[in-house]
Amino acid sequence: QVNLVESGGGSVRAGASLRLSCAASGGTFSNYAMGWFRQAPGKEREWVATILTSGATIYTNAVKGRFTISGDTGRTTIYLQMDSLQPEDTAVYYCNAGSMWGQGIQVTVSS
Question: Average model confidence (pLDDT) for the chain?
Fold first, then answer.
């Protein structure tokens, strides 16, 4: 069974950076687009960024220019580099590939 495991979250001050990782255990996702979603308290889960099988990347407007999604060659791990973090980025971040989801990881940004 393939699982997605996120790491790298934490609590930071506004303007700081964090890098999230999502590791695939039990397989690879070379044939999948992979992405990051987030869910803030009291809000619905929202899409953040996707890396396509071609390597092309797309972002929601709220993070464009601040976040960068990337993946290793074998697509066993993807990353989300988050720069210039703001309090509104506070959320649980989830990794996604197809119908598979990670368990989520907390990112808290204080002003």
Answer: 94
